[in-house]
Amino acid sequence: MRDVAALAKVSTKTVSRVINDLPGAGPEVVERVRAAARTLGYRPNLTASSLRRSDRRSATIGVLFEDLSNPFDSALLRAVEDRARQGGVLVLAGSSEDDHSMQRELLLSLSARRVDGVVVMAVGGHQDALQQERDRGTPMVLVDRPPTFGGTDCVTTTNRDSSRDAVLQLASLGHRDIAFLGDRRTLWTSQERYTGYLEGLAQAGLTLREELVRTDLHGADLAEVAATELLDLAKPPTALFTAQNLVTVGAMRVLRARRLQHRVALIGFDDFPLADMLEPGITVVRQDVPGIGRKAAELIFARIDGDTSPPVHAVVPASIVRRGSGEITPSAD
Amino acid sequence: MRDVAALAKVSTKTVSRVINDLPGAGPEVVERVRAAARTLGYRPNLTASSLRRSDRRSATIGVLFEDLSNPFDSALLRAVEDRARQGGVLVLAGSSEDDHSMQRELLLSLSARRVDGVVVMAVGGHQDALQQERDRGTPMVLVDRPPTFGGTDCVTTTNRDSSRDAVLQLASLGHRDIAFLGDRRTLWTSQERYTGYLEGLAQAGLTLREELVRTDLHGADLAEVAATELLDLAKPPTALFTAQNLVTVGAMRVLRARRLQHRVALIGFDDFPLADMLEPGITVVRQDVPGIGRKAAELIFARIDGDTSPPVHAVVPASIVRRGSGEITPSAD
DNA sequence: TCCTCCTACGTCAACGTTGACGTAACCGAG
DNA sequence: CTCGGTTACGTCAACGTTGACGTAGGAGGA
């Protein structure tokens, strides 16, 4: 900047004025400064600028999800990024791997870089680190899972209601033995979906068979094992409700291996690519991922812009997409 | 920091020493400062620090891909992020949408934040903005597509050779009418894969039927149209080589709609989730995405650490994954 | 003519941090 | 007891930028 000022024969302050399109610079001077900046390849230093400016904005937000390579997470990231770009804001992204210390470290890293706000998919269990950061005044929005502390916005989907609807659909087809396969019980979404499952059973007048409930299935491999065990029961389930992405995939593999994919009904929570191309197509509860991302972005930017209205818990509705696997009736045998 | 110093009754310099674990602070003072920092909720300001420090590092790199919600891009991002985290480096991520002005703007944004380096999936066509940034001294690694200018590292896969091998495999099964369906011709990868297709035909002694070559299919919808037209030809192809992810999906849809999925052979470039669960399983050329990401990260961090050896073009081998659709022999009729 | 107001600049200090350097106290060796 | 060296601090300025304020010159009105 000093070099630009010297070359244009003005003060650095005037260069600043030109770069930021502030008034108080004559047209001739503006041109001289612009030319000098071009020839020197000058790039303003936003970090120095935000250090000095009164608003202290870094024009950067943090996004802290579980696994950026997961389709759900990356779709969410993309939605947030699109909204951010409209305001000239960039996104610092990190994967917490559902690990508390990782989440904590990443949060500190973001804090050290003075991000204007963070969008977090909270790790299950306690949220001490999140609350601490929130209490320091960092605008924060939780996605997918609500905060266990107050004063923070959050965006989730209709986990419980949609799970209940899925179970009710299966029950209405005549299924009486509906299994539940869920992810880690520490995750709020898992709990909600399980509660929805229970509500569905109750509303349909079905009794819970505890041996048909399998939880803590983190990843497709564990889900495969659980599905195998369920189908090996003396009285196996005639329908499966799989409460997460990868769990659905694991269950599908087992059904296909046993050629049961047309005999055992399956509804999964979370859509995934190509679910419609399988034989049969997989019926799923589809979350409105871009909708969730947009809402989260909208909330975080409102808070950054000083919105002090009471915290919001936005719920973005999910819907059942019928593709075949969830419309299978119980086998005669 | 001043507040911490005041509370601990030391100078800010001593606080700095304690925070950075530098020698020159007595154990008692260290404890006082740590306690003061804790009670005040002090967080170091990395931007101010990097402004003043001699090395000028922001401990942040930029990642500029085409679409972060694309599985290929997000897997790559994840691999880079994992490597970055090991060095305490965070990732600023952006989607260029294959648009020159977007890429340019994001690049300027990254530059303004003084990232230590950038990993870029270059937009097709000219690379003026990239070269300009590179010439300013920003360490840069291109992934998936090589630079059109010199002096820059890059990581790609065996686009040409693997495409040739795919075509040779189809030819060896007796296919003589093998169609090519490709993405935008401005993309280097498309060109390479097309060249591999031509090499494969030539090596197998097959003549090129130009009406079987369809390019500029950006997205599954365009691919569907093209596949439909190909199958409507008087002498339709008995095998398809689809040179990109979404193109493969589009072609698959058409084959299934016409119940030809067991009669027309299909090999796709790029793997995708659940390709093994379809009927038949889809034979693909699988890139080693984590390998590419790791290599790109390794290169960028080496450059950031001052490696001045000649630029490298790393080629990470892809391999054919046989799942059924690429092993179909030509129909009798 | 003189005073006021506005425009187009410049000067200075400060944002939070650290490199360079200074200094006082203490330690061990000769 | 002195002297060189080490340890444990402190002081000062600077990184690149901008808010606050100062000033010179010209335009315009009484």
UniProtKB/TrEMBL annotation, chains A, B:
UniProt keyword Isomerase present: no
Keywords attached to this entry: DNA-binding, Transcription, Transcription regulation
Classification via InterPro entries: HTH_LacI, LacI/GalR-like_sensor, Lambda_DNA-bd_dom_sf, Peripla_BP_I
Residue ranges constituting the HTH lacI-type domain according to the UniProt record: 1-53
Domain of life: Bacteria
Gene3D superfamilies named in the record: 3.40.50.2300, lambda repressor-like DNA-binding domains
Name used for this protein in its record: LacI family transcriptional regulator
Species assigned in the record: Lentzea atacamensis
